[in-house]
Amino acid sequence: MNTIPMTPTTGKPALSVVNGFIRTEKPTVNGWETPESLIVGTESAKYPLHALPGIVGQAVREVVEIVKCPPALAANSALSVLSVAAQGLANVHPLRSLKPSPLSLYLLSIGESGERKTTADNFFSDVLDTWAHQKQQERETDLIKGRAALAAWESEITGIKQAITQAGRKGENTRELQERLELAEATKPKPVHTPDMVFEDSTPESIAYDLAHKWPSAGILSGEAGVVFGGHGMKADNITRNVATLNKLWEGGSLSIKRRGVDGSFNVRNVRLSMGLAVQPSVIRDFYETNGEIARGSGFAARFLLAWPASTQGNRFLSLEEATRNHPKNSLNLFYAKLHEVLERQYQNAQHGALENIPTLQFSHDALEIWLEYFNSVEAELRAGGDMEYYRDIASKSADNAARLAGLFHVFNGADVLDTITGATMEAATTLASWHLYESRRFFGEIAVPTDLSNAIKLDDWLISYCRQNHTDTITRRDIQRLAPNKVRNGNDLDKALGELEDANRIRLTIEGRKHIIDVNPALLRG
After folding, report:
1. Spatial separation of the C-alpha atoms in residues 526 and 144, rounded to whole Å
2. Quick check: pTM over 0.85?
3. Phi then psi dihedrals of residue 273, to 5 deg
4. CA 20 to 30 Å from 158, out of 33, 132, 177, 268?
5. d(Cα 128, Cα 336) in Å, to the nearest integer?
6. Most distant CA atoms of the chain, gap in Å
7. What is the pLDDT of residues 314-352, one digit of tens each?
């Protein structure tokens, strides 16, 4: 493949090499050997910051300089905000035989607490809230008039219905009242729409309702990702329906929501949704262990541009000059100005409550050739022995995401919607899409591990969290059986998990009388 960076593996999935540890002499600190990773797999490739074009790339580099977070996390923050703002401007159409795709993106960043993902998010997403609030203030008078007109209309409807009921009881003719009701129903005041663009913790159904009734373009931007990977919305009785809803919204498709209650059933058409989520590895691992068949079988997992970068914690040192400098944020200010311009263009398209008749971006000849090369190179890796042989579902949406990225870069960096997407823009988009594709391959290869190793990973996460919270590096086996996750409390499963951790120099097992004591390697508890 020409545009996809090759991993340092032999092309086989990471799960095929999770079968033990290569033993070498390890340095010791305080009598402890260096702890080994429980997963033997590939490291995250360096994020291709050079591929982020123009204003977007400059702003991301500036945030990385200020925040010192992994570049992929800052880039995902910027792209999620860019997607929310620009998805209401245009569609993109790589294949004439298929319907156009929205410019919406689903982005997922995986990292431990403390990676400063939220800080990076705030540099980009605050503009959305500020702009939406400004629009709501500008239209406050119209909103008040709209609410009053709707209340008067509802009172009129109620009065006519009551009159029909009373006339019916008396045996009187209700034809004239019915005609009045028909006329009143036809003159329902049109709602006043103002932007409400960011969701943090809502169910997919409530998001669909708000898109249909409030503002047709929004984003789920969450540092906890509970709306998607946890909480009531993803319990066994809800997950299939909610994943289907989110899949349909990614496609820009229509939905028909059937429900009872005050608001009743409703239809969702001509709306757009993007997502920018962050989640800790243990949370996403639990989600896919429980719901992986549904998430992958439905294509939900394939829709995400996933980033799981190496941590920068422990290397984010500050100089005196950095600590006392008031960063001018020149690139960020350019990003903010452009984002405001894009939002104003979205406002013109969406102010009547739906994104109807928005233009479709077309590819130049060079861009189409580059996109086709990427599409075909991914397809070639699906064959037996290819890089994506075991990840065909994950690879299925990569070319579509590349087209969406190209469309976003096109409109955000100043091109007109009537101009064709250039080859350079498409080259940047396919470079990024390929990086995310291999991140997904690495992630799904490393969570698809044998049960015994999966239990060891869960116990390891829990032990580190427990020790940090309780300011200790020691715990008894009895306390593990009492407090640890249910799946690793049982004797046989616990023994195997502890054995894995001891083999990896992550713990030591000692016995004092009848007490079994587990010491955690201090190197794991730093930071």
Report:
1. 55
2. no
3. -135, 135
4. 268
5. 10
6. 98
7. 888 888 888 877 888 899 999 999 999 999 999 999 988
